[in-house]
Amino acid sequence: MNRVIIGLMIALCVVVGAGLFGILDSRATDVFLEATRPDFQKIPIGVFGFQNGGGPEWLGGRIEEVLKADLQRSLVFSLVDLPAIGVKAREVSTTDKAIFKQAAENGVSVLVWGKSGQKNGSKESELLMDGFVYDSGSDEVVGGKRYVGSTSVVRLMAHRFADELVFRYTGEPGIARTKIVYVAEHGNARELFVMDYDGYEPKQITADGFLNLMPRWSPDRRFIVFTAYRSRNTQDIDILELATGKRWTLVSMAGLNITPALSPDGNFLAFASSQDGNSEIYKLDTRTKTPQRLTVNQGGDLSPTWSPTGREIAFTSDRGGAPQVFIMSADGSNVRRLTYEGDYNAAPAWSPRGNWIAYVCRTAQRLYKICTVSPDGQKRVQVTTGPGIDDSPSWSPDGRHITFSSTVDGKSHIYMVDTDGKGLERITFGGTHNSSPSWSPAL
Amino acid sequence: MRIPVATMGLTLTVGMLLVMQGGCSKKSIQSGGDAQSTERGMAKSGGPAPSAMGSTGGVGGMEPPAATFPDLSLSSKPDDLETGGLRGFDSVSGGKAPSEERLGGGGTMLAKVEPSESTARQIEDIRREQAKEQAASAEAGLRDVFFGYDSWTITEEGRQSLTQDAQWIKANAGALVKIEGHCDERGTLAYNLVLGEKRAKAVRNYLVELGVGANRLAVVSYGKERPFCNERNESCYQQNRRGHVVVRSK
pTM for this structure? Predict the structure, then answer.
């Protein structure tokens, strides 16, 4: 959505192998932001506490904790332990030149502080957070933000402040206010839930009592598309409007109707259906409601994922016997195989920057892990290791994290990991079976 | 970004309750689907298929979805999608306070789903229907078929089971049978749905070979989503790689 193109557009010719010859449009693969480059230096940031001025006792501490976690996960900033480098202050004001100077001399680029409490003269539930930013490069107080709201938006205040900081220093909106939709076991059923990207505030969005599977966001993040078992015997692809809970059926063909994915511009819904015998990929024009079949072969084709340009689709196919990841043009032409290592590669997810496709790879030890491959097939990385069945990778909108489900701790839970395999973090703790996470676009 | 808290709230809750009424609103907007489903009794009503799918083999076709579904095109959305409503920092020079931003709704407004009475009833119906199927299948003595890892090939043992199943189905002319494809927990959720369908269809095809009418056999895949056994070992996995043959309750 928020595409900042810095690199030059080039086209690569690649030999895809096994006699397949393909010309890959790699315009999308050269999109870089400074902060995704391996040599990117994180910006050292120091966070003073948020002084409490009335309001609940936990308020300042909560804001500080959420903000710090957001800044850490942004991978744009590195948190400086201020007391450890001798920068201490009980209270900071916008005119504290001495503190600013001391922080700057200790290599801190950005300083953040604030206060929080009851909003003056307001009804009891109104809370307030003030946040301020000092930049040592320009030696000035950049400015501040004031948020007001009920206790239920305290985490959002910190998230929003973190996103403003990321936006100020990268031009991107940040991911602290993003959400993850996922499937959770609820009674004997599987229902859809939406939670904050850090695992907080889970909310149930369906209550059908059977199976709702494989949710994905619309690009404007107002809707969720998913597979719903309408009865126990048939499936539809439905769309649910989050704000109202209203639901529509988009696809209702015979057989499997699974793995829906809206194109980046929202104009097409790609999905898999087995109405013609075996699972094939179709594309529905959401404006004209015209369907088009994209794949024609005896194997099972499923799990379409759009390139950020909307010009190509990666998908799973077992046309060679075992599931592998393939790429085709969005009109179904120019099909070529992308993965060659191992005999089970599935569930591809094209990164929002275009330069990687994450997928589930089966290792030589027959473990199901998360791998990434460049769209030209030249680079391949195994991102997760160790025990547990990993599934359903989905990218953060900034392209720096992958969320996925794993059974590494016994029951299936939702995790996130940096694209280099570091920063593994479990984000669901309740429930008996959480799966199929999908990360929302930034907003 | 000022989030209009007041505009969501009650009206949306009311709307949600309407949606939850036994799934009735869902039924009313259902599109046709293909009327040529071989799954008798499950065939969806709907008009003739459009020609758009005609070139792909002519089986079935796709009814255009409900004409009313909302516009999903990003081009019709407001510009502030690009920055997510971020406004930048306000100047605080001279001790000025930043201007106030009121937050509500958690960024993405979510209608709350309260498991309602009608949902509870629906869940109870599903449970009862399943119990009925189970009892009918046990009484008929229908046997399931088990598969190897990654495989949808029917084994010799599976053939014997199906030979017995076919005899019962042929002897009970009124009965409708459903074959559920199941998988063990290894592999991806999505591919296991396809694998489960391959297993169910392999079972159906063999029963047809044995002379059972295809129109009496429905298939459905549950992938790894409704396992028979929840432990993490081979004997449990074996239980879950299954073509489950059941007498349909309707």
Answer: 0.85
